[in-house]
Amino acid sequence: MTEKLEKILTKTGERNFLLSLIRYGRRYFSDSIEFIDFLTEAIAANPIIKEKFIGQLIPIFRNIHMQKFMTDFRILSDDKLITLLFRHIGNKILPQISDDETLLSLTNEVLYSNGNHNFVKLIPVDRWLKFYEALFKGDTVICNREYVKKQIREGALILIDRIVGGAADTEVFKMSQIKSIEENPFQKLARNLIRILQDHEIVDSDKIGKLEYQIKTCQIYLDNIINQKEKKGISLQITIKITCLRQQLERISILLHALHLLDNESLTFAMANITKNWLGFYSPKSSIINSFQSTIYILTSLVIWHNRQTGEKYITTTPKEYMQMFYSAMGGGFLVAVLCFIKAQMGMGTYAPFTQAMLYSFNYAWGFVAIYLMHWVLATKQPAMTAAALAHTLNQDEKSVSDYKEFGLLFIRLFRSQFIAFIGNVLAVFVTAVLIFYLLSYSTGIELINLHKAEKFRGEVVNLDFKIFWYASIAGIFLFLSGLVSGLTENYTRYHNIPERLYNHPLLKKFVKEKKRRKWGNWYENKIGGISGNVFLGLCLGSAFLIGNFLGIPFDIRHITFSGGNYAMALCYFNFDISWKEFLTGFVGIFGIGIFNFLVSFSLSLWVAMKSVNVPTKEMGKILYSALKLFIKNPICFFLPVK
């Protein structure tokens, strides 16, 4: 083993030495702890190996520049989300590696391989301490204590300048409850920190304690801004700024502790802790996805909060509420039957694909908006909202048995609410479609549906064509996205204070009375989220077939209620010339479509909602198990409101 190490030590190439050393450790040792113990013993026992080791390390670390590593590495910049995303992807594909004396470039090159990083990061502090004690033997040669302190002070000064500038941003300051810039905690932190750093003061325990308290105050200031999101709304730009400020504050804290160690401990102890802590900058938690996790979490939690407010209305508890859900669902089914006939007429016309898509989209959109404004129910619109209410039954910290039980009980209420909504939708759309077909056929003589359409509508559900369930899953994705659009629109409305701006609009003041303007503003605030989500859903459902046509792939949508209406029209066209077995099989296909609509929409919505309340995905097993136990114990309560 020693011979191989000596061979590596005789090679030149600076960074290549570190790469060769890590590859050597990964290849010949079971883990990194065994490897660093071997290096420590070899350096301590053999002066020649130690001399060569130092000779290799000096050119790499003696005058290395650390500022960019400390101030930029894995910290979000204050920029557009798309720009940030492409920048992170670009840095992953083409890392920032150049032939310069920077710690950033060195780290990117040596730790670019996940295997290298995972190998090195597992080395504990006590092993680093023994390694440095064997290597340094005092404050000499490789690491100049004052040079490292100078680099850290400069990095901290750069960070505090950025932090103060970010906290003074107009949008961030507007969201805060502090009205005077002098009361801004970032200003107080900056004054104390700049004085300590520029005067080269010793960072003792008292100073660390005071600075940590001020950093905590700044973090609370940012938390208070986020906590107002449900009342005022928040923009994606603000969430990026706040995430950036939080990361910079955390990095300042790490640098201050490094200075404290360098001022008050031995060089070996300080460097052991700094090495271990700074390796964390390159943690997988800083990957592309997780770099945006805290930012997206803020906005997602806000969307889910809005959806939860709506979703709670869709979960019935009492028999009276259960029947009200049934009647509301029948209203939704009645209107969908009308939409089915309008869409069938559009489908028999000769239009360009884009024109036909726009006609379909308009038909879906006005129908969904009408159902929403009339307080009727479309069953598949519920999961995106109710999933948010379910996720919030779980605490964000410790999950107890009672949390899962509460989730299970709420899931029972949700399931039976969804069940009766399905029944109401399908029953109403089928009966209404039959009545409309015979009424219009005998009174007008209009061809309501042609043979091709009738055979298609009947065949795909009676034959249980697998594609209809794939199409139902696509519709489920669109249903999920429409829920997000609703929440985002409500957030945008609150953040930009649209209702008050409408109320105070100069032109409206001239022609509309105050009471009516207030009424319009309140209506807009309460309804715009639902309207936007339904319009978006209409556009998606109406235009989906264009994607399939353009790409030549099976891409379309199927929706339980519309499939029920189409099936009724097809049966009417054939004067119900169908066996009872095929008739019932058709309803199996229709409810199968509904199941896929529900499962896909609900699963995606629940996953996002769980992320928004910081519930790990792995908890899903316990959650579903609690619901399964309740189903085995009392299955009837999943369908009827019984005790």
Write the layout of secondary structure elements.
Layout: H1 2-10, H2 15-28, H3 32-45, H4 47-61, H5 67-72, H6 81-93, H7 103-110, H8 114-121, H9 125-136, H10 145-167, H11 170-175, H12 185-198, H13 205-227, H14 229-232, H15 236-264, H16 267-279, H17 288-291, H18 293-311, H19 319-347, H20 353-373, H21 383-391, H22 401-444, H23 451-462, H24 466-495, H25 498-503, H26 506-511, H27 514-551, H28 560-573, H29 580-612, H30 620-633
Helix pairs in contact: 1-2, 1-4, 3-4, 3-9, 9-16, 10-12, 10-15, 12-13, 13-15, 15-16, 15-18, 18-21, 18-24, 18-29, 19-20, 19-22, 19-28, 20-27, 21-22, 21-29, 22-28, 22-30, 23-28, 23-29, 24-27, 24-29, 28-29
Quick structural summary:
This protein has 643 residues and is mainly α. It has helices at residues 2-10, 15-28, 32-45, 47-61, 67-72, 81-93, 103-110, 114-121, 125-136, 145-167, 170-175, 185-198, 205-227, 229-232, 236-264, 267-279, 288-291, 293-311, 319-347, 353-373, 383-391, 401-444, 451-462, 466-495, 498-503, 506-511, 514-551, 560-573, 580-612, 620-633.
